[in-house]
Amino acid sequence: MDVRNPRTGQRHSRIDATASGDLVVFCQELKKAQPAWAARSWAERVAVLETWVAAVSTDADVLDALSVDTGRHRLAAGEISGVSFALSQWARFAAEVFADQSSRRLVADPNVTYTTRLFSYPLVGVISPWNFPLLLSLLDSLAALVAGSAVVVKPSEITPRFVAPLQKLIDASPELGPVFRFVIGDGRIGEELIKNVDTVCFTGSVTTGKKVAAAAAVNMIPAHLELGGKDPVIVLASADVQKAAVSILRASVQATGQACQSLERVYVARSIYPEFIKALINEAERVELNAKDIRHGHLGPIIMEAQATIIAGQVDAAVEAGAKKLTGGTVENHNGGLWIRPTVLVDVTHDMDIIKEETFGPVLPVIAFDTPEQAIAFANDSDFGLSAAVFGEEAEATAVGVQINAGAISINDGGLTAIAFEAEKDSYGLSGLGRSRMGTSGLKRFLRKKAILTRHAGGAGIDSLREHRD
Ligand code: NAD
Question: For 183, which of 118, 250, 313, 318 is 20 to 30 Å away at the CA?
């Protein structure tokens, strides 16, 4: 595969994709090795993973490769430290999930007891996107490995450089190597992977998510889908306007807007609208690109070239239909890489793609509202339902927040889901399917329950089936 460098636009890296036949063999080998991995205690599995994660955290090659993949340094380092944190949390949840396997009496017959035993799915497949390539490859993988499954991961073909140094560290671990493997390739390898695993975790677009769900249904395996969003934020008249503008700008443009939980629609009470817009623009214009120096500035490049076309297309179409750009709004080419500054749009309407479709860029379309009811109706006028935010007096903001059709609501901040590991959340609308990735549920997704039912006394014979009039 030719791989593009997001900072230079050059396509000089060539990376070999995994052959379909090799994928099948890898999956067979992983399944063969999994029972021995599952036979270890969860604490032993965590200890093996801790050693591996410590090696990843100090490996300069992983950080360097991830920085080239994404064109950013601080967030690449953040992805790596996020992996250590994730493992510590899965370990905490494992203690809870694996704790209670004691025997209980059945309500229907106290002479029968039951225990619930947990069995991990043999092989979990993980398919991940390009926006946080390492973290989104490892989040579900670590949970599945802690649960006792073997894991095969197919990361995005847009950002595959980090895989070689990571796989080298996996191969260096005699315990982990047999049960954990990355494969490389585009959607075709993703399709093959689904045919060879027992459960699939997919993070990516709605369009691909639907294909993954259909393929999983054909193979009768569970699919856990974490898809796109169009997160709204409501700023009530009772909000601290300056603080709201500062938080909203950060939560919208973080990672150049290439985050599923980016705030992409801003609804502001009309009474504070002029003050809010002024504060938002002030904050937006402080933002610097990291185009000259990867270690300087706030925003990295747009990682996928085609995304730049989507962002520019949505902004231009909105402007053509009557929206006004107050700041930003143009994709800039710096030495072949593509960047875009925070973009504030006003005079936007709900029929525009900039409000309806995921943008995945640092664009904030702002609309004024007259009543909280109208704001809630705007927020819910969407096919998506990933997360949302509300700013205002706490009780009022919470009362508004609970009426938004989304899996997580941040009150007086934006994008808190990025740090909330223990707070379980489900997706609404097109934003996903399956149980919460976060909290103990994230681990339980990889465990099948088996009920062991034991009779201690009594028991029915054929006469228990005789009709009463016989
Ligand atoms: P994408 O759907 O284009 O690709 C995701 C992955 O699916 C890639 O690895 C790709 O190769 C693979 N793929 C493509 N076709 C496939 C097929 N037919 N079968 C199996 N696999 C296939 O998404 P993307 O552009 O890489 O990522 C951006 C999207 O991801 C955005 O919509 C974003 O909102 C979403 N996302 C969601 C979350 C979340 O937690 N909800 C997090 C990050 C990103």
Answer: 118
Query: Do 202 and 301 fall into the same domain?
Result: no
pLDDT in tens, 65-95: 999 999 999 999 999 999 999 999 999 999 9
What's CA 380's distance to the chain center, in Å? 21
Whether ligand 1 lies within 6 angstroms of the CB of 82 is answered as: no
What is d(CA 295, CA 75) in angstroms, rounded to the nearest whole number?
Answer: 11
Catalytic residue, chosen from 175, 201, 260, 358, is 260
One domain, residues 18 and 109: yes
Task: Flag whether the pTM goes above 0.90.
Answer: yes
The vertex-417 CA angle with 187 and 376, nearest 5°, equals: 100
For residue range 349-388, list pLDDT tens digits in order: 999 999 999 999 999 999 999 999 999 999 999 999 999 9
- Is residue 226 part of the annotated active site? The answer reads yes
Same domain, 111 and 243: no
| Atom 9 of ligand 1, residue of closest alpha carbon | 156
Ligand 1 contact via 97 beta carbon (within 6 Å): no
User: What whole-number distance in Å separates Cα of residue 287 and Cα of residue 254?
Assistant: 11
Structure confidence at residue 102 as a pLDDT band (50, 70, 90): confident
CATH of the domain at 178: 3.40.605.10
H or E element at residue 131: none
Q: Based on the domain organization, do 70 and 116 belong to the same domain?
A: yes
As given in the structure block, the two tokens for residue 266 are 């801003």
Instruction: Judge if 240 and 202 occupy the same domain.
Output: no
Q: Is ligand 1 within 6 A of the CB of residue 189?
A: no
Q: Starting from the edge strand earliest in sequence, which strands make up the sheet with 231-235, in order?
A: 324-327, 343-346, 363-369, 263-269, 231-235, 387-391, 408-411
Please count the structural domains in the chain. Answer: 2
Q: Given the CA of residue 307, which atom of ligand 1 is nearest to it?
A: 25
Residue 164 sits in the same domain as residue 28: yes
- CB of 130 sitting under 6 A from ligand 1: yes
Q: Would residue 260 show up in a list of annotated catalytic residues for this protein?
A: yes
> Does the beta carbon of 154 sit less than 6 angstroms from any atom of ligand 1?
yes
- 468 assigned to some structural domain: no
Ligand 1: centre distance to CA 212 (Å): 10
Atom of ligand 1 nearest to the CA of 129: 26
Same domain as 70, residue 133: yes
In ligand 1, the atom with minimum distance to the C-alpha of 127 is 9
Distance CA 354, CA 318 (A): 7
285-332 pLDDT per residue, tens: 999 999 999 999 999 999 999 999 999 999 999 999 999 999 999 999
Q: Domain range holding 405? A: 231-418
Specify whether 373 is located in the same domain as 256: yes
